Amino acid sequence: MKVPKSVANLIEAFESLPGIGPKTAARLTYYLLHAPDQLAEKLSTAAKDLKLKTKICSICQNITETDPCEICDDPARDKSVICVVEDPLDVWAIERSGSFSGLYHVLHGVIAPLDNIGPEDLKINELLKRLKDGEVNELILATNPSMEGEATAMYIQRLVKPLGVETSRIARGIPIGAEIEYADEVTLRRALEGRKDF
């Protein structure tokens, strides 16, 4: 069966998004085909606004509509602590938890030699500039616990050490609701190493 070109084009556009395969792309397309016109317009406007109105914060490198972003501009935030994350979604996740009141720095990736991504491709120099004024006392390295995330955290820690800024790493271990018997050896080892008084 031949699919109309406009339908095929939207399926192809959805497929180019990460995490969306051919079946999901087709399902989304056919849903929009039968959805109210307002939904398609809302989606179109939101995508256009995303590209036109967002920019990178000149301080923390997060995605924002204002420069500086709302977090960097908030006088209630603790400016002595910076949490270093891989991408803007990590900021969103930590903010949702409501457990951090400091500032952020978004690297926009990790050191990944196999993908030809080196330190110069990340926002590390911008981080070092922020640390030179002496206002920051602690840097929390919150990169993912992957090989690349660990390598990036270690690289940053080596660069920051001469500046006298205390560095810490987010804790790793068994997630809430998980069962110990299903945890892998590395997770169990890190959970035991990072144990706290009870």
TrEMBL record:
PROSITE patterns: RECR (PS01300), TOPRIM (PS50880). It comes from the Bacteria. Transmembrane segments: none annotated. Pfam families: RecR_C, RecR_HhH, RecR_ZnF, Toprim_4. May play a role in DNA repair. It seems to be involved in an RecBC-independent recombinational process of DNA repair. It may act with RecF and RecO. PANTHER family: RECOMBINATION PROTEIN RECR. Belongs to the RecR family. This is Recombination protein RecR. The gene is recR.
